[in-house]
Amino acid sequence: MKSTTVNKEVIKAAIIKMREDKIAVRSFLQGTASIETLTSKGIKLVKTI
Fold this sequence. Notes:
With 49 residues, this protein is mainly alpha-helical. The protein has helices spanning 8-30, 35-40. The radius of gyration is 15 Å and the shape is elongated. The mean pLDDT is 87.
C-alpha cells in the first residue's frame, strides 16, 4: 500500500481560499462587486454557450 502524507496547513489554506472565492462570486452576482475585482483575485468567469 502506498501511504500519502497530508499537509494540514495546505488543506486549510485551500479551503479558506475556496470560501473567499465563493463569497467574491456571490457578491458579484448580487451586484456589489465588479468583474475587475474578480479578475484581480484570479477568478475567471466564462459566458455560456
